[in-house]
Amino acid sequence: MRVMGIDPGLTRCGVGVVDGRPGAPGTMVAVGVVRTDPEAPLAERLLALDDGLRAFLDEHQPEAVAVERVFSQHNVASVIGTAQASGIALLAGARLGLPTATYTPSEVKSAVCGNGTADKRQVTTMVTRILRLKEAPKPADAADALAIAICHLWRGGVKARISAALNNSAAGNKESAR
C-alpha cells in the first residue's frame, strides 16, 4: 500500500510518501515540504498549500492519506493555522476519493518509536531506521510526515476494521430496534 503522510503546517507542511505493509519496513517514495509565504494573504497561502499537496498526490498516486491531528498548544494563532492546513490536507485526499485518516502526535510516536512521548530526534532516528535511509530526512516536518505515513501503514488497517465493526454493530442495533 502507498500512503501519503502529511504533517500540516501553514508555513511548512511536511509531506512523505511511503510504500509498505503492516509490520514490515517500508520504502520511502518521496519526501518534501510545501512552503507558503508567511507575508502572503491567508487565502493565497491556503491555495499554495492545496496546489503543493495536489502536485504530490498527482505525482505519487497514494492509495490513502494520513494527516497528523491538530492538538491544542499554548499558541492559539499557531493552532488555528495548523487546523486550516489540516483541513486543506484532508480535503486534498477526499477530493480524489482516497481514504483519509488522522492520528494524534502520541499515536504516531507510539507506532514509530514504541513511546508516545518520544521527542522529534527519536522520531527522526526511528524513521531513518525503519525506512533504511542513508541519512535522516530534513527538516523535522518531512521526517514527521514519513512517520505519519508509517503509522497509517502499521495501524490504519486495524483502525479501519474497528471502525467498520462499530458501524456494522450500530447498523445491527438499528435493525433490532425496528
TrEMBL record:
It comes from the Bacteria. It catalyses: Endonucleolytic cleavage at a junction such as a reciprocal single-stranded crossover between two homologous DNA duplexes (Holliday junction). CDD domains: RuvC. Its EC number is 3.1.21.10. InterPro entries: RNaseH-like_sf (IPR012337), RNaseH_sf (IPR036397), X-over_junc_endoDNase_Mg_BS (IPR020563), X-over_junc_endoDNase_RuvC (IPR002176). GO terms for molecular function: crossover junction DNA endonuclease activity. Binds 2 Mg(2+) ion per subunit. Mg(2+) 2 binds at E68. Its main location: cytoplasm. It is found in: Cytoplasm. Keywords: Cytoplasm, DNA damage, DNA recombination, DNA repair, DNA-binding, Endonuclease, Hydrolase, Magnesium, Metal-binding, Nuclease. Its cofactor is Mg(2+). Mg(2+) 1 binds at D7, D141. The active site is at D7, E68, D141. The RuvA-RuvB-RuvC complex processes Holliday junction (HJ) DNA during genetic recombination and DNA repair. Endonuclease that resolves HJ intermediates. Cleaves cruciform DNA by making single-stranded nicks across the HJ at symmetrical positions within the homologous arms, yielding a 5'-phosphate and a 3'-hydroxyl group; requires a central core of homology in the junction. The consensus cleavage sequence is 5'-(A/T)TT(C/G)-3'. Cleavage occurs on the 3'-side of the TT dinucleotide at the point of strand exchange. NCBIfam families: ruvC. HAMAP family: RuvC (MF_00034). Belongs to the RuvC family. Homodimer which binds Holliday junction (HJ) DNA. The HJ becomes 2-fold symmetrical on binding to RuvC with unstacked arms; it has a different conformation from HJ DNA in complex with RuvA. In the full resolvosome a probable DNA-RuvA(4)-RuvB(12)-RuvC(2) complex forms which resolves the HJ. This is Crossover junction endodeoxyribonuclease RuvC. The lineage of its organism: Bacteria, Bacillati, Actinomycetota, Actinomycetes, Glycomycetales.
